[in-house]
């Protein structure tokens, strides 16, 4: 029987990530959240901001950013009796697989929307991923210090485009230059905004009750009247907060504020720590694993090069699913069947990497990895389990990669296989020739690969165009038919970095024909690790 302290430790954890479109304010809100978590003395000190501001080919910048994002990729801090783990999602303009996999390691998400713009592209894409696991979503409408769109219309857009009911928890009083604050519907009080205080935690003046005449004198009669009218409408037309619907991903509580002005962020954090789920169960091929089980288990969702020049190894990020990690404990690496004694895992308290003494279900720890650990690997205390749902996405862009110095072929292959292990790109080796094909989901990844090959593997490589439109992982339950397919389609087959068979199609038409011709073969767009 688990003891109460152990249960408390787990139940107070809240592990979430931010999803947003570039420029909506993710970096800014992260800063303010850390300010509230006492993890930063003063906002404005989170490095690595403006991730899309560097020139695409500027490797040093990328390197710097990546280095920084190792230390800020998980931030743990206490808030309101909860222990919050905020997982950063890479901020490249590109669609990134890392982002997607990070979303498999959280229990809830904060969706930040630029209220002047509404629901944007990237948010839409990321929401599709959170849908796969019905992740609960908290919404923050940002940039109220600017002129925004009609708040009612914003809620409508979330409801229709993202197919999720909205429950406003706060409501804006004016916006832009006339932004006066919000009315907190649940607390039945207005909280007044003061501009120019974004670097600090403010004790906002509050006014109890919507009909309080103090409200009229504080924000002006006109705005107060408008607020009353709007709220009557909003409360009638929108959804009441329902925690069950929130937990099943069908309803999102909505907060309004300005991250830059550090206003409303605390209301959102209060809601998130109160309502977001404690560490959730995770599926394995055998059974569901519950967070409060005595035995430790976890899975690796990301591998990143360690930018500390003294340690040229890589860090495997593991989400602890159940139990507790303590220093020196033995873990079973399920895929290899080997027992590993882990004495030097890192935790990410307040953005600084430090040695983990203890960590619990819901936490992320970093394992030093010398190439033995892969994305998707499960670790347990002995039980043979395999966590499911950590996807690899079929790339959409392909190039042939070639060496300037042909003698370094082995180094090139090693580099590519390691980079594909990290999930940065995918590498394909056709069965019929010696080409090396790099597949990526976003175009920036190609530059990163060449730059990293040079910096880390000392090989200079260049790309050539290649006639590949798409790739699909193939398998079949019908051994005989699969053998026939492999014989007949050999010129289209390749092995990926993990030696999985893939079908490389020069055109989509070709892929569709192959699907028709081989109905017993599954052509998969995602592959689970
Ligand atoms: P991102 O990580 O989602 O890409 O967004 P980031 O926080 O970097 O914010 C993008 C821009 O929007 C930044 O301006 C930031 O200062 C601004 N911003 C964020 N929140 C607010 C807000 O509540 N109100 C207003 N008015 N602006 C906000 P920038 O000019 O690109 O960068 P910087 O020069 O301020 O660093």
UniProtKB/TrEMBL annotation:
Do you know which InterPro entries this protein is assigned to?
A: EF-G-like_DII, EFG_III/V, G_TR_CS, P-loop_NTPase, PrfC, RF3_C, RF3_dom_3_sf, RF3_GTP-bd
Query: Which residue ranges does the record assign to the Tr-type G domain?
Result: 11-280
Q: Which SUPFAM superfamilies match?
A: EF-G C-terminal domain-like (SSF54980), P-loop containing nucleoside triphosphate hydrolases (SSF52540), Translation proteins (SSF50447)
According to the record, the segments passing through the membrane are none
Residue positions binding GTP: 20-27, 88-92, 142-145
- The answer to whether the entry has keyword Nucleotide-binding is yes
Question: Which keywords are on file for this protein?
Answer: Cytoplasm, GTP-binding, Nucleotide-binding, Protein biosynthesis
Main location (coarse class):
cytoplasm
The record's subcellular locations are: Cytoplasm
Matching HAMAP family: Rel_fac_3
PANTHER family per the UniProt record, alphabetical: PEPTIDE CHAIN RELEASE FACTOR RF3
Which family is this protein grouped under? Belongs to the TRAFAC class translation factor GTPase superfamily. Classic translation factor GTPase family. PrfC subfamily.
| Cited function | Increases the formation of ribosomal termination complexes and stimulates activities of RF-1 and RF-2. It binds guanine nucleotides and has strong preference for UGA stop codons. It may interact directly with the ribosome. The stimulation of RF-1 and RF-2 is significantly reduced by GTP and GDP, but not by GMP.
Provide the protein name: Peptide chain release factor 3
The organism encoding this protein is Catenovulum adriaticum
Gene coding for it: prfC
């Amino acid at each position: 029987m688990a003891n109460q302290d152990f249960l408390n430790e787990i139940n107070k954890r809240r592990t979430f990530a931010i999803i947003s479109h570039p420029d909506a304010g993710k970096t800014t809100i992260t800063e303010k959240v850390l300010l509230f978590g006492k993890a930063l003395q003063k906002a404005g000190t989170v490095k690595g901001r403006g991730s899309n501001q560097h020139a695409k080919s500027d490797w040093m910048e990328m390197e710097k950013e990546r280095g920084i994002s190792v230390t800020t990729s998980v931030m743990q801090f206490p808030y309101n009796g909860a222990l919050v783990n905020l997982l950063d999602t890479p901020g490249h303009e590109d669609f990134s697989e890392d982002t997607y996999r990070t979303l498999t390691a959280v229990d809830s998400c904060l969706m930040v929307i630029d209220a002047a713009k509404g629901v944007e592209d990237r948010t839409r894409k990321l929401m599709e991923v959170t849908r796969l696991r019905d992740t609960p979503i908290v919404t923050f409408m940002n940039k109220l210090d600017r002129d925004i769109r009609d708040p009612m219309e914003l809620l409508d857009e979330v409801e229709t485009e993202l197919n999720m009911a909205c429950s406003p928890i706060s409501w804006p009083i004016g916006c832009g230059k006339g932004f006066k604050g919000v009315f907190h519907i649940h607390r039945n009080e207005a909280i007044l905004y003061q501009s120019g205080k974004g670097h600090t935690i403010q004790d906002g003046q509050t006014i109890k009750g919507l009909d309080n005449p103090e409200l009229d004198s504080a924000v002006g009669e006109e705005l107060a009247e408008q607020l009353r009218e709007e709220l009557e409408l909003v409360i009638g037309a929108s959804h009441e907060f329902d925690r069950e619907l929130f937990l099943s991903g069908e309803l999102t509580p909505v907060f309004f504020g300005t991250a830059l002005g550090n206003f409303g962020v605390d209301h959102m954090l209060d809601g998130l720590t109160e309502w977001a789920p404690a560490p959730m169960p995770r599926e394995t091929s055998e059974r569901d694993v519950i967070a409060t089980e005595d035995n430790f288990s976890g899975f690796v969702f990301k591998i990143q090069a360690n930018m500390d020049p003294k340690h040229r190894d890589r860090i495997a990020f593991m989400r602890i699913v159940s139990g507790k990690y303590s220093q020196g404990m033995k873990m079973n690496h399920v895929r290899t069947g080997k027992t590993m004694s882990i004495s030097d895992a890192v935790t990410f308290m307040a953005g600084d990497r430090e040695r983990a003494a203890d960590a619990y279900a819901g936490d992320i720890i970093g394992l030093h990895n010398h190439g033995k650990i892969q994305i998707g690997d499960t670790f347990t205390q002995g039980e043979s389990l395999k966590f499911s749902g950590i996807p690899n996405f079929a790339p959409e862009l392909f190039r042939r990669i070639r060496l300037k110095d042909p003698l370094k072929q082995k180094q090139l292959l090693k580099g590519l296989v390691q980079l594909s292990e990290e999930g940065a790109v995918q590498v394909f080796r056709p069965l019929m020739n010696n080409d090396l094909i790099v597949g990526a989901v976003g175009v920036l990844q190609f530059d990163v690969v060449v730059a990293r090959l040079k910096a880390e593997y000392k090989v200079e490589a260049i790309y050539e165009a290649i006639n590949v439109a798409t790739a699909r992982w193939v398998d079949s339950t019908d051994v005989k038919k699969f053998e026939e397919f492999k014989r007949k389609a050999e010129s289209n087959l390749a092995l990926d970095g993990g030696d999985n068979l893939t079908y490389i199609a020069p055109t989509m038409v070709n892929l569709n024909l192959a699907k028709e011709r081989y109905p017993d073969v599954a052509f998969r767009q995602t592959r689970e690790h």
